[in-house]
Automatic annotation (TrEMBL):
SUPFAM superfamilies: Adenine nucleotide alpha hydrolases-like (SSF52402), MesJ substrate recognition domain-like (SSF82829). Residues 263-325 form the tRNA(Ile)-lysidine synthase substrate-binding domain. Pfam families: ATP_bind_3, TilS. It is an enzyme of class 6 (ligase). This is tRNA(Ile)-lysidine synthase. The gene is tilS. InterPro entries: Rossmann-like_a/b/a_fold, TilS/TtcA_N, tRNA_Ile_lys_synt, tRNA_Ile_lys_synt_N, tRNA_Ile_lys_synt_subst-bd. It comes from Microbacterium aquimaris.
């Protein structure tokens, strides 16, 4: 009697995670997989290819060539070739990276723009990316170090919106070791990006130095604890956002070249809600993010009003006009 070969546990875990994420999507929606050639995205692409065959899904692997390394075109072509061998349609997209404000952030923005463009071309496909639990832990630590507040500490959501198309992270519950094991079990050779070992980048130092020190000094399970913290903060943030959405409808009015908020209504709310309303108004109306210091300066127009002048903010200006805080474009 012949026996079917047993499925490697890591491969099973990755496929199970992908299947759970796809169950939350419209089964008719096409899929776009962000593929760098690294272990995380390669394990994701292999699992998506397997699920696509089982369920007759349309799936495309998109390899973004950032052009930041001499061999980038060769690496991109190799990743696309691997995707093709898995049974996925593969596409290489070359992008220009404006390094103003940092290479990491600029490359990430260029990459997401490219993925979204292909998703739109594919009929508003869902975009799947390979972030793992380790990436989540690093994000929380970096947010903590920067004093970014709950908005950063809540980390990455399993499913969010990328300018109108779903952005899905199926592997957030899995460690990076699982994706490497899944690749090895399937005979897939991942590419190791040299930038992922470059200590110039804060995320690399967090990954290679900070987290290992925490694990050594505090015991194993730090990464999982950070991921749980992110999940709890995300639940709190969602509840806050729902409360704020109901509150904003009553206290915000559109004004010439901007928007205004009732100062007495802001004053009547707890500081946490007041500050969130201020940040949300600026983000939604002007597409800008406020720092903690900027948020508190605007809040002083409400709680410590003594005739101070306008406050210059990213993309707008805030000032007190009677019993309202007016935000106008600059």
């Amino acid at each position: 009697m012949s026996h079917r070969p047993s499925l490697d546990p890591a491969v099973a875990d990755v496929r199970r995670a992908v299947r759970a994420s796809l169950a939350r999507l419209d089964p008719a929606r096409p899929l776009v997989v962000g593929l760098s050639g690294g272990a995380d995205s390669l394990a994701l692409a292999a699992a998506v290819a397997f699920e696509a065959r089982r369920s007759d899904l349309s799936a495309t692997a998109v390899v973004v060539d950032h052009g930041l390394q001499e061999s980038s075109a060769e690496v991109a072509a190799g990743a696309a070739g691997t995707a093709g061998s898995l049974g996925l349609e593969a596409r290489v997209v070359v992008v220009d990276v404006d390094t103003v404000g940092g290479v990491e952030a600029a490359a990430r923005q260029a990459r997401y723009r490219a993925l979204r463009t292909v998703a739109e071309e594919r009929g508003r496909a869902a975009v799947l990316v390979g972030h793992t639990l380790d990436d989540q832990a690093e994000t929380v630590l970096l947010g903590l170090a920067r004093g970014s507040g709950a908005a950063s500490l809540k980390g990455m959501a399993p499913m969010s919106d990328l300018d109108g198309v779903p952005l899905v992270r199926p592997l957030l519950s899995l460690r990076r070791s699982a994706t490497r094991a899944a690749c090895a079990a399937q005979g897939l050779e991942p590419w190791d990006d040299p930038h992922n070992a470059d200590p110039r980048f804060a995320r690399v130092r967090t990954r290679n130095t900070v987290l290992p020190v925490l694990e050594r000094e505090l015991g194993p399970g730090v990464a999982e604890a950070l991921a749980r913290t992110a999940e709890q903060l995300r639940e709190d943030a969602d509840a806050f956002d729902e409360m704020i959405g109901e509150t904003i409808e009553d206290i915000v009015e559109h004004a010439e070249a901007g928007i205004s908020v009732s100062a007495p209504a802001l004053a009547a709310n707890p500081a946490a809600i007041r500050h969130r309303i201020i940040r949300l108004v600026v983000a939604s109306e002007f597409g800008a993010s406020l720092s903690r210091v900027q948020t508190l300066e605007v809040a002083r127009l409400v709680t410590d009003w003594s005739g101070q002048g306008p406050i210059d903010l990213p993309g707008c200006r805030a000032r007190r006009v009677g019993d309202r805080i007016a935000f106008t474009a600059v």
